[in-house]
Amino acid sequence: MITSTYYDIIRYPILTEKSMLAYQMARQCTFTVDRMANKVEIRKAVESLFKVKVDDVQTIRTKGKKKRVGKTIGKRADGKKAIVTLKPDQKIEIFEGV
Known about the structure:
Layout: H1 6-9, E1 10-13, H2 17-26, E2 28-33, H3 39-50, E3 54-62, E4 66-69, E5 72-75, E6 79-86, H4 93-96
């Protein structure tokens, strides 16, 4: 893989009502990640960036939506999301305050 740092793998957290409910109920954090990253790289990135222990990683590939601007039809970029389950005694601060 070409990415060099953990910040290239983990793009940003997804802070929606559904992801906040999943964090409160099952300690599952949702992140937008690099499309070429695999589960092992995502696990290492989350553990080193947030200093937590990861229990499980699930990934979802998302297709970009078709959008129209005037006569031109374009397409948004495809993406990838990761749902990271933390060990029971672990927490990430950015998900706690929201």
